[in-house]
Write a structure and sequence with these properties.
- The protein is of the alpha+beta class.
- The chain has 5 helices and 5 strands, in the order H-E-E-H-H-H-E-E-E-H.
- It has a 5-stranded antiparallel beta sheet.
- The relative contact order is 0.12.
């Protein structure tokens, strides 16, 4: 494997049509905590969580065969320590030596989950503030109407 690909800032895996891993880069090995020789020859699906394995079988396989590519597929891997590692996968199908091979790039998504949680918290706080503002505006409107009624009755006297 080319040194630049081996040390790329994203994971790379190449698997045969039967989903047996043929090659991985050092980055993916570090991300998952496995040795390269332990990953090559194993099943790609064995690295996925149960739900991602099902998702992979239902969506990845038909898409890669139909479109010869998959973009932005969210999967979760299991690291050697059992921790989940969410990734974004892009893949392409290429024919090498008369056999189909799937080349995949994997971008870790640890930070994205944190960012999404922060965005959700901010949206929730914004909604609460908007509701409070509406409540205060309604109260202000009621007080203004009450004041106008009081001023209207005192001017009639």
């Amino acid at each position: 494997m080319d040194e630049r690909l081996d040390q790329a800032p994203c994971g790379y895996v190449s698997m045969a049509d039967n989903r047996v891993i043929q090659d991985v880069n050092a980055t993916l090995c570090r991300m998952l905590g496995y040795e390269k020789r332990g990953m090559c020859g194993s099943s790609f699906e064995s690295l996925l969580t149960r739900s991602s394995r099902i998702f992979f079988q239902i969506y990845f396989l038909p898409l890669i065969k139909l479109n010869r590519g998959v973009e932005e597929m969210y999967l979760t891997f299991k690291t050697s320590s059992g921790e989940p590692l969410p990734v974004l996968l892009n893949a392409s199908a290429v024919e090498r030596d008369g056999e189909w091979v799937y080349d995949c790039m994997l971008m870790p998504m640890r930070r994205r989950m944190e960012y999404e949680q922060q965005i959700q918290q901010a949206e929730s706080a914004s909604n609460r503030a908007r509701e409070e503002l509406e409540r205060i505006e309604n109260l202000l409107r009621q007080k203004r109407d009450e004041l106008e009624r009081i001023q209207g009755t005192s001017s009639m006297e």
